[in-house]
């Protein structure tokens, strides 16, 4: 009976067991996972644009090779996440159509421009750092395919974060102009990175239910606070200042107090009014159209060689 299935699902989640694709699950659980996993995947592939913007202008072959590897990783993360979402009965085609039609989101952070080479380091250190803080708990998410995709993605994100940190360190300790370029990038990427964790808990539409289902393991504000506490000592080592005059250690809380986030800016970016929203989506649509021949060729090849043993 439906009640028995519901009870079995609740017991599995309560026991921290994994829900697998063939298990019965509430339709609302499925729908919320498709929503989150699709938007996570969209974030990965849109995130390739601001970073790729500097591949042809990287200051050395070494930096170019690292950046190319990182952008390729982001495409791969998108692939894992679309594949994991497809285990819930949707298709990559359908999800991409929704992205292109503006009916599904991607992370607000990628609607900001990468104005100088130092932005590549700031993205690695702050954006990938925030992504890791948000994604490590997702390795314990109740839905098996999502949790398993996160394990490998987190390993690769660590490389992304470290290369960004190292690049910023080189700039910060370089010439005064390089130090200023690194500081300017941190000034522009700090607050949008805090917005990656989502709206404040009391304005989060999904958190309560998502935490009941053990999809979300910590609240938006908890992870945001954790990220701030991680970044403060790192900024000190970098010799860079975080652009928040209210940022200070609170001995009583054992955490850093920090200033107010501009949630109007967050809402505007989510509405599509960020600096680069239009550019990102039109570039994405163009890439999809220009890539149609690759998809057709791969489909034709698969049809021709299907059932003829190893192709
Ligand atoms: N950008 C865009 N939309 C956001 C957002 C952000 N920074 N933060 C929240 N939202 C959206 C939510 O998607 C939701 O809208 P929806 O109903 O249309 O999906 C709405 O705002 C309300 O937010 P909630 O807190 O209620 O939503 P969630 O419970 O889903 O929490 C989240 C938001 C913490 C981002 C959660 O979805 C999550 O953990 N997602 C997986 C992680 C992820 O997507 N990370 C993207 C970072 S970029 C990245 O990973 C690339 C890396 O390689 C650099």
From TrEMBL:
Gene3D superfamilies: 1.20.1260.10. Pfam families: PaaA_PaaC. This is Phenylacetate-CoA oxygenase subunit PaaA. It comes from Streptomyces camponoticapitis. The gene is paaA.
């Amino acid at each position: 009976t439906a009640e028995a299935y519901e009870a079995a699902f609740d017991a599995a989640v309560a026991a921290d067991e994994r829900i697998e694709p063939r298990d019965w699950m509430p339709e609302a659980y499925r729908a919320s996972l498709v929503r989150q996993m699709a938007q996570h995947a969209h974030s990965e592939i849109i995130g390739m644009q601001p970073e790729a913007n500097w591949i042809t202008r990287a200051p050395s072959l070494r930096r170019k090779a690292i950046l190319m590897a990182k952008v390729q990783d982001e495409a791969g993360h998108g692939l894992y996440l679309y594949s994991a979402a497809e285990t819930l009965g949707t298709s990559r085609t359908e999800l991409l159509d929704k992205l292109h039609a503006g009916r599904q989101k991607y992370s607000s952070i990628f609607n900001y421009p990468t104005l100088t080479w130092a932005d590549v380091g700031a993205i690695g250190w702050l954006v990938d750092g925030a992504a890791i803080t948000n994604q490590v708990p997702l390795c314990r998410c109740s839905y098996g395919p999502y949790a398993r995709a996160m394990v490998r993605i987190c390993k690769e994100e660590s490389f992304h974060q470290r290369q960004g940190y190292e690049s910023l360190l080189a700039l910060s300790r370089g010439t005064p102009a390089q130090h200023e370029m690194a500081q300017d990038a941190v000034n522009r990427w700090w607050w949008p990175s805090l917005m990656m964790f989502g709206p404040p808990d009391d304005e989060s539409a999904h958190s309560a239910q998502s935490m009941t289902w053990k999809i979300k393991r910590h609240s938006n504000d908890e992870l945001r606070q954790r990220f701030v506490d991680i970044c403060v000592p790192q900024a000190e080592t970098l010799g860079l200042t975080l652009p928040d005059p209210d940022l200070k250690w609170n001995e009583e809380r054992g955490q850093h107090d920090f200033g107010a986030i501009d949630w109007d800016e967050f809402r505007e970016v989510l509405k599509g009014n960020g600096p680069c929203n239009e550019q990102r989506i039109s570039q994405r649509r163009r890439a999809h159209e220009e890539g149609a021949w690759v998809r057709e060729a791969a489909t034709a090849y698969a049809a021709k060689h299907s059932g003829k043993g190893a192709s």
